[in-house]
Amino acid sequence: HVDFWEHEWGKHGTCSGLSQLDYFSHALKELIPTPSIVTDAEEQHAVVKKDDLLAAYGGAQLVVLSCWRHYLREVRVCHQKEADGSVGERMECPESMLRKSSCGSEIKIASFGM
Q1: What is the rounded CA–CA span in Å between residue 68 and residue 45?
Q2: Tell me, what's the pLDDT at 43?
Q3: What is the pLDDT of residues 36-50, one digit of tens each?
């Protein structure tokens, strides 16, 4: 998963003003829990409605859903950036981010269980 960490640091961390260790330590503290709508759908190989998924993550303005072939690929949230470069409170995502949502009205949840 080195490519993932390199991408995250290069795309987001380098402008934070933090060291890599501090950036990722702060980022991991800000992880939001996976809502039950996702874990339940994963267990049942189900499809969820986009509006229900957005609501589970706090609302349409607070999350950007990324899909690939109708499957949920990524959930993005927006945070304020503090003056010292650290991660601030969760905030509404700007319109430029919201436009990047790529999911249809029904979203498949992949199961990673064995």
Answers
A1: 16
A2: 85
A3: 999 999 888 889 999
How far is the C-alpha of 63 from the C-alpha of 29, rounded, in Å?
Answer: 18
What are the DSSP calls for 5-32, one per residue? HHHHIIIIITTTTS-HHHHHHHHHHTPP
Q: 109 Cβ partners below 8 Å, 6+ apart?
A: 38, 41, 42, 45, 46, 47, 48, 71, 72
Return the amino acid letter for 71.
Answer: Y
Q: Which two tokens stand for residue 114?
A: 């064995």
Q: Look up tokens 């430029």; give the residue.
A: 96
In degrees rounded to 5, what are phi and psi of residue 91? -140, 170
DSSP symbols for 43-76: HHT-EEEHHHHHHHTT-TTSEEEEEETTEEEEEE
Determine the residue type at 7.
Answer: H
Q: Is the pTM of this model over 0.70?
A: yes
- Provide the 3-class DSSP secondary structure of residue 99: coil
